[in-house]
Specification:
The complex is a heterodimer.
Chain A lengths: L2 E7 L6 H17 L3 E6 L4 H8 L4 E5 L9 H13 L4 E6 L3 H14 L2 E6 L1 E5 L2 E8 L4 E7 L4 E5 L14 E5 L8 E8 L12 E5 L6 H14 L3 E4 L1 H5 L20 E5 L5 H7 L4 E6 L12 E4 L2 H15 L1
Parallel strand pairs in A: 1-2, 1-4, 2-3, 3-10, 4-9, 5-9, 12-13, 12-14, 14-15, 15-16
Antiparallel strand pairs in A: 6-7, 7-8
Helix pairs in contact in A: 3-4, 5-8
Chain B lengths: L1 E5 L2 E3 L10 E2 L4 E2 L6 E3 L1 H17 L2 E8 L4 H9 L4 E6 L8 H15 L4 E5 L10 H9 L3 E11 L2 E7 L3 E8 L2 E5 L12 H7 L4 E4 L17 E7 L8 E2 L5 H18 L2
Parallel strand pairs in B: 1-6, 1-8, 6-7, 7-13, 8-12, 9-12
Antiparallel strand pairs in B: 2-5, 3-4, 9-10, 10-11
Classes of the chains: A alpha/beta, B alpha/beta.
Chain lengths: 321, 267
């Protein structure tokens, strides 16, 4: 028997990422014949506690002032101590938020295990943990055989199925003695965004290098996004140019999204961009180049200059109500 | 201030997908006619280090674990006005795991001296595993921060700004510390001046074997953390339907009729 731990941040609540991580943890635990354990770093809402307790054998809420807001060293040490108290752990799962990505390799090192990032699928048959993920900027798929125990992973949790309710487990609060941190996060600036986040959006209107500057994002594309009830995104080229904020970036090194519809405007479709939005249910593109790689991934598209398409399309959609 | 930047040389990630081939036996990409380039986030890290040096004085060292080919990447770093470079020559596995690389870098850094700040790219454009930085921080026992896009140094205190899912955070640390660098509009890597390219050949680039830094090939075999067991190119069978029409208005009408139902279902 070997156990699975899902580590979540209390502040994130029982979001889609928590559900997907718990679901994957539950399926792994079933295949290894072990238990699913959920650890919350920082106080968690009733909804989060209930969500975890419904599918996990044990829920630990590490509730102490040092974890009220994320600090890297406190979170790392608390995760290390909480994981160490659970015996026979084969896999430790995190979601794909900033903090999880930062903690995973450090926690693996401290637990004497191994780690991997951006995992899209994980199995644990016969005690051997195999993880699949994209490689080479989305040009290839790779499978990794993990060699040390525990295996610490951050997974694309939002794309993974939630857990099924189980018998319901124990819940306890804990607090640990934590070392004085050397590095301190002193301020946090949340960029104002209207509506849902990119990751949670049902429809995304994304723009790329071909837009030529920030104006099109602010004018034509914003209007279209409003008409489509969509969230705006961008390619890396547009973010690097400073046209839009970095957290608009969709791609290998930006957000990984999977909306119902992803409309790519003046985006050629570099593989690193495709890696971030390839899971979208439907992809459409507006591009002047019929040979642009983006069209190889589209359900439908139009070969035109966006300038001739976006404004009339917006008008048309508004008139259709 | 003494800054060390770890860099990785990789297969050009901008090579066209149609030229990309994998070797099923070695489970690595075929180089073919593609160039070897410095990973972009490593160049962002070099640029970040050089900007700190220019504001505060000090020295920037570039370090890489690679082959003789990697000399080109280090030479380019020197041309960007890095002061000195060190190359640890790889032995054993050609795709060593992240832990093996972190051990090599940690031993090399210990050999090279003491640094106030160590920078790395957040992940590489080839395998993109993104684990080496965190593992190196643990090997060296340093505080670290990921997704950092700018750093200011003031009297031994480092102020780092980093990108998060929802915005930015600012952190302070009294060195030494490690930062994993991501891109922003301010750390776009500089293009070396011709004069600096010439000068780069006069700057020190020292090569070391694993034995020179106190390791043996067995210490860093390269597959005790994880091992790639399969590498393949996924097949896509999506057929794009290009919107047709006699006029652009007609085409836009067709486009709208395809988009509208999805909008209606999700609003």
């Amino acid at each position: 028997m070997s156990n699975v731990i899902v580590v979540l941040f209390g502040n994130n609540g029982w979001d889609r990422s928590a559900e997907g991580a718990a679901g994957t943890g539950q399926r792994l635990a079933q295949s290894t014949g072990g238990n699913l354990n959920v650890v919350f770093l920082g106080d968690a809402s009733k909804e989060a506690r209930d969500g975890a307790a419904a599918c996990a054998a044990s829920v630990v809420v590490v509730n102490q002032p040092e974890l009220a807001e994320y600090q890297p060293e406190a979170a790392l040490e608390a995760a290390q101590k909480a994981c160490a108290e659970i015996s026979d752990t084969s896999v430790v799962l995190f979601g794909n938020d900033t903090y999880s990505q930062e903690l995973v390799p450090r926690l693996a090192h401290r637990l004497g295990g191994c780690s991997l990032a951006d995992v899209q699928g994980v199995t644990a048959d016969g005690g051997q943990v195999l993880a699949t993920r994209s490689a080479y900027g989305g040009k290839a798929m790779s499978t990794y055989s993990m060699k040390k125990t525990p295996v610490v992973l951050w997974v694309r949790a939002r794309a993974m199925d939630p857990a099924t309710p189980g018998a319901g487990g124990s819940l306890e609060e804990k607090a640990y003695e934590l070392a004085t941190p050397r590095l301190t996060i002193t301020s946090r600036d949340v960029l104002e965004s209207e509506g849902p986040s990119l990751e949670d959006a049902s429809i995304i209107v994304s723009g790329g290098r071909g837009l030529g500057g920030p104006e099109a994002f602010e004018n034509e594309l914003k209007g279209l996004a409003t008409a489509m009830h969509a969230v705006q995104g961008a390619s890396r080229a547009a973010c690097d140019a400073g046209w839009v904020p970095p957290n608009w970036q969709v791609g290998q090194t930006g957000k990984k999204v999977a909306p119902e519809l992803y409309l790519a405007i003046a985006i050629s479709g570099a593989s690193q961009h495709l890696l971030g939005m390839g899971d979208s249910k439907m992809i459409a593109a507006i591009n002047t180049d019929p040979d642009a790689p983006i069209f190889k991934h589209c359900s439908f598209g139009i070969v035109e200059d966006y300038k001739n398409v976006v404004a009339p399309l917006t008008e048309k959609l508004n008139s259709m109500g | 201030m003494k800054i060390l930047v770890c860099i990785k040389q990789i297969l050009d990630p901008d090579m066209p997908a149609r030229d990309f081939k994998v070797n099923a036996e070695t489970k690595e990409a075929e180089r073919g006619g593609a160039n070897l380039v410095t990973n972009i986030f490593c160049e962002n890290a070099l640029e970040t280090a050089l900007q700190i040096k220019e504001k505060t004085s000090g020295k920037v060292t570039a370090l890489s674990y690679g082959t003789d080919d990697t000399e080109d990447s280090l030479r380019k770093a020197l041309a960007m006005t890095v002061d000195e470079a060190a190359l640890i020559l790889r032995e054993g596995d050609s795709n060593p795991d992240a832990e093996a690389v972190a051990k090599v870098l940690a031993a090399a850094i210990t050999k090279l001296g003491e640094f106030d700040l160590i920078l790395m790219g957040r992940e590489s454009g080839d395998w993109g595993v993104g684990q080496t930085g965190g593992l190196l921080a643990e090997e060296l026992g340093l505080p670290s921060l990921a997704f950092v896009d700018s750093i200011e140094a003031n009297d031994g205190t480092l102020t780092m700004r980093r990108q998060t899912d929802s915005g930015t955070e600012t952190a302070t640390v009294t060195g030494p510390a490690l930062a994993l660098i991501t891109n922003n509009e301010f750390n776009v890597p500089r293009i070396p001046k011709t004069r600096d390219v010439m000068m780069s050949y006069r700057k020190p680039l020292e090569k070391f074997s694993l034995a020179d830094i106190g390791l043996s090939a067995e210490d860093v075999s390269g597959s005790s953390f994880y091992e790639v067991t399969d590498l393949s190119i996924p097949t896509k069978d999506v057929q794009c339907e290009f919107v047709e029409g006699d006029s652009i208005d007609e085409k836009i009408g067709v486009l709208a009729s395809k988009i509208q139902p999805v909008v209606a279902a999700n609003s």
